[in-house]
Amino acid sequence: MIMARTLRLLTVSLVFFFCVQACRSTGEDSDKSDLYEEVSFLVREATRDVGNQDFDAAMEKALRALEISRTSGGGYPLGEVRALYTITGIDIMSSRDADAWEKAVEAESIARRHGFTKELSQILIAKAKICSYAEISPETGRNDEGLTYVREALNLAEQTGAVEQQAEACLVIGSLYINKNRWNDPIDMDMYELAGHWLDRGQEIADVHDIPHLRRNGIMFRARWFQQGDRDMEAIEYFEQVLKGLKETDHMTAAALDDRLVRLYTRIGEAEKAQDIHDDYVYHMQKYLQQKESETLQEMETTFEVHEKEKQLERNRFQIILLILAIVFSVMLIALIVRHLVKERRRTEALQKLSDSKEQIIELLSKDLKDSDGSLNDEITRLSADATSLSPDQIREKCNELASKAEAANTEVAGYVGDILIKRNQQISDIGLSKREIQIIRLSAEGLTAAEIAERVYLSVHTVNTHRQRIYAKMDVKNVSDMLRKATELGII
Q1: Mapping DSSP to helix (H, G, I), strand (E, B) and coil, where does residue 371 land?
Q2: Over the stretch 384-403, which tens digit does the pLDDT of each residue have?
Q3: CA-CA distance, 131 to 133, in Å (whole number)?
Q4: For 184, which DSSP code?
Q5: 487 within 8 A of 445, measured Cβ to Cβ
Q6: What are the structural domains of the chain?
Q7: Among 54, 216, 304, 317, who pairs with 323 as Cys (CB 3.0-4.6 Å)?
Q8: Residue 67 main-chain phi, psi, to 5 deg
Q9: Residue 354 Cα to chain centre, angstroms
Q10: Long-range contacts of range 344-352, CB-CB < 8 Å, 24 or more positions apart?
Q11: Distance CA 363, CA 369 (A)
C-alpha cells in the first residue's frame, strides 16, 4: 500500500513538473505536448519564411506541420487547421488561387466541426481575399461572395475580441468595395465613401493596437482608394502626414510609404522629389534589415534563456547546440547581406563606367549627325530603344548606316556601339524574357501598378502578377525595384 501511494505521488509530481517545463517525457501527455510544440514551431518558422519571401522553405515546413498533425497520436485538429491556413497564405502570395481555395475550404470544415472560432475567422478572411483577387470582369467578379465571408469573420472576431482579425476584416471589406466600384464609370460615390469608411475603421484598430503589418496594408488599400478617386495630391498629403506620425523605429512602414510617394511624385512629373524620397526608401529598408537581424538574435537569446530555466538538465546540451546553430545562421545571414551590398556597389560602379562610355560614344556619333530636320538624332535614339528586337547583323548594319552619315564617326566606333547593343541583346536572350514580359517591365518602369498594367494590356491582375513572378525568377530578383534596376542595366528601359 505504501509503495503504491509513493508511486502515485511520484507520477503526479512528474506530470505536473513536465507540464510546467514543457518538456518531453515517456508518457502520453508529454508526447502530446511535444506534438503541439513541434507543430507550433513549424508554423511559426513557416510564417517567418513567408515574411522573408522564402515561399519554398515556408511551404516545406507548413506541409510537415500538416503531416505531423494528421498522423501523430490520434491527430491534432487545431494544428491541422493552422497548418492549412499557413499553406493557404503561401498559395495566395504565390498566385496559386485554386490551391489556396482548396486548402481554405478544408481548413474551414475542420474549424467549424471543432469550434475553432479564432482560426475560422482567419480562414474566412483568407477566402475573402481569394475572392477579391478573382475579379477579371464584372461578370467573373466574386466581390459579393467575398463580402459574405469577411462579414462573418468580422462578427466572429468581435465575439472573441480578436482585434487583429477585426482590423484585417475591415480593411478587406474596404478593398472589396473598391473592387466593386472598379467597373463603374463614373464611380459610385456612395460605394466610394463606404470603402473609405471601412478603411478608416480598419486603420484605426491597427493604430490603436499597434499592428504594424496591418497598418502597412491599410496604407496600400488607401492608395488604391485615392487612385480610384483621382486624388493624387490628397494621397501625397495623406502619406506624408502618416510618414511624419510614424515611430522612428517603424522603418518598414516608412519604406512602404516612401515607395508609394515615389510612384505618386513620378506620376505627377516631379522627378527630383521622387528621387529624394527614393533615397529615403533605401535608407529605411537598410535600417529595417538591421532591425530584423537584431530582433532575430534577441528572440533567439530570450528563447534560449527561458528554455534553459524551464527544461530539465538533460536538455541543456540540446538547447546550447540550437543556440550555436542560430548564431551561426545569423552570422552567415549577415555575411550574405554584406556580400550582397558589396556586390551591388561593384555592379553600380561597373554600370556607371559603362554608362559613361556609352554617353561618350553616343555623343561622338551624334556630334555631326544633325541635318535640317534632326532626323539622324532621332535615328540614334530609335536604334538604342529598338535594339532588343534586332538581330546582330541588323544592329551592325544600322550602326554603319549612321556612321556613314557623320564625319566624326567611323566604322570602328559604329562597330563598338554595335558590340554593346549585341551584348545587351545576348544578355536579355540568356535570361529568356518574352516580349510580353519585356512589355510588363517597361510599363512597371512608368510607375504603373499591376492593376493599371492589366488594364493597359487587357490582361487580368493575376496574369500580370504571374508574369512578374516569372520575371523575378528569370532575372534573379525579389521585387519591383530590383527588377527595374536590373532592367536598366540590361538596357530594357
Answers
A1: coil
A2: 656 666 666 777 777 777 66
A3: 5
A4: -
A5: yes
A6: 364-490 (1.10.10.10)
A7: 304
A8: -60, -45
A9: 32
A10: 347/489, 351/488, 351/489
A11: 10
Q: What pLDDT, in 10s, does the model give residues 472-481?
A: 999 999 999 9
What pTM, to 2 d.p., does this model score? 0.50
Residue 20: burial class (beta carbons within 10 Å; 0-12, 13-18, 19+): exposed
Quote the DSSP letter at residue 475.
H
User: CB under 8 Å to 282, separation ≥6 — which residues?
Assistant: none
Residue pair 431/438 in contact by the 8 Å Cβ criterion? no
- The dihedral region occupied by 410, where left means phi > 0, alpha psi between -120 and 50, and beta the remainder, is beta
Does residue 333 sit in helix, strand or coil? Answer: helix
Sign of the Cα torsion 142, 144, 147, 152 reads negative
28 to each of 66, 79, 113, 351, 413, how far by Cα in Å?
Answer: 20, 18, 25, 63, 81
Q: Cell for 268?
A: 505627377
Q: How far is CA 70 from CA 81, 127, 244, in A?
A: 10, 23, 49
- Sequence-distant (6+) residues with CB within 8 A of 81 are 107, 110, 111, 114, 116, 119, 123
pLDDT below 70 — which residues of the chain?
A: 1-32, 73-74, 135-136, 295-311, 313-314, 351, 353-392, 402-421, 423-424
